[in-house]
Amino acid sequence: MAKRSIRFGVIGLGLMGREFASAAARWMHLLDLDFQPVIAGICDTNPALFGWFQANFPTVNISTTNYLDLLASSDIDAIYCAVPHNLHAQMYTDIIQAGKHLLGEKPFGIDQAANRSILAVIEQHPNVFVRCSSEFPFFPGAQRVIESIRERQFGTILEVEAGFLHSSDIDPNKPINWKRMVEINGEYGCMGDLGLHVAHVPLRAGWKPHNVRAILSNIVTERLTKDGKKVPCETWDNAVLFCDVRTEQGDAFPMMLKTYRIAPGETNTWYINIYGTEQSIRFSTRHPKSLLTMRYTSGGRQTWNEESLGYASAYPTITGGIFEFGFSDSILQMWAAFCDELLNGHTGMRQSFYCATPHETAQHHALLTAALESQKSLRCVIVE
């Protein structure tokens, strides 16, 4: 089968830039797709990062420290941009104005004003395809949860819980980096970097919070620089958002969203739990093969049933169904969805779950902006 190539430039060659490139290298893992990404250009302000890409991707023909070189190249169709939050507004708008399709990283702007400026440029360039990275909903268990939401299997929804927990900052002696600096990461702290992962599925379901009461925690208030000097660490480490959801269908229920950088015992756990009068469901990447469901019958027992999911992905792969699905698999699936929608449109995709949209990032910013105000005022705040 002849494959249509999408020539990508990668801006930001750190952890996630390498993960995307690795997904492109594994493209033969996916079955029956007539498109593929090609790594054609790379950019980072640190040229020491070029070597890994150049050694593993002979298709790279542009290596630069200036991202504008990628935008000026006719050999680049689309950009994956993974840079600190304070650079989003400038870089994302430059990418879009250059006519390059974009998959950007969350939160899609350091604050609400930056996000609005990006969305205004998207509105001016309707032929440019733009999405935001969010890979966890592509886990098989998450896809089953999404299927249950679409089929409205829960009866009356009683409560929703979703979160992203890890312990990357539990060591108080860990040196400070940009994600712990307000001027680079933004005032959202942990919510900006982790929150869209948590909000993606609820927002896609139409569960936009009407109001929020936030409890934000700055647990480690000082951290060491690389040379051993103590400096203030002012970003929020942990956040709990208590939300009142009111849907267009007339549903109303509480929703609790958590983003923790200091969660003892957790490495990188994404979860969603939905409780309803007819069915409840739970899924966590801590136990990626397990899906818990409880269906109620009149007078029946309330018993959680555990199903071992195996490898059942949105886009079919060579992997046998008995094996485990992991983080790198979710990234591969997300990239397949991005390329699929880019080439075939929303209605022509081979499966129906698409990447996070710019509109969903705007909803996310509205929630986080209200959460900051809630923390400052110690009250419940309407989400505009």
Write structural notes for this entry:
The protein is of the alpha/beta class. It has two domains: 4-132, 3-Layer(aba) Sandwich (Rossmann fold), CATH 3.40.50.720; 149-323 and 356-382, 2-Layer Sandwich (Dihydrodipicolinate Reductase, domain 2). It is built from ten helices and 17 strands. It has helices spanning 15-25, 50-56, 67-71, 88-97, 112-124, 140-150, 182-185, 190-204, 327-344, 358-377, and strands at residues 4-11, 35-43, 62-64, 78-81, 101-104, 130-132, 157-165, 209-217, 222-224, 230-232, 238-246, 252-260, 269-276, 279-284, 290-295, 305-308, 381-382. Strands 16-15-14-13-7-12-11-8-17 form a nine-stranded mixed beta sheet. A six-stranded parallel beta sheet has the order 3-2-1-4-5-6, with helices on both faces. The chain has a two-stranded antiparallel sheet with strand order 9-10. Helix 4 (88-97) runs parallel beside helix 5 (112-124). The model has no long low-confidence stretch (mean pLDDT 96).
Class from helix and strand fractions:
alpha/beta
Strand content: 25-35%
The CATH class of the largest domain is identified as Alpha Beta
Order of neighbouring strands in the sheet with most strands: 16-15-14-13-7-12-11-8-17
Instruction: Give me the strand/helix succession.
Output: EHEHEHEHEHEHEHHEEEEEEEEEHHE
Overall, the morphology is: globular
Short description:
By secondary structure, the protein is of the alpha/beta class. It contains 10 helices and 17 strands.
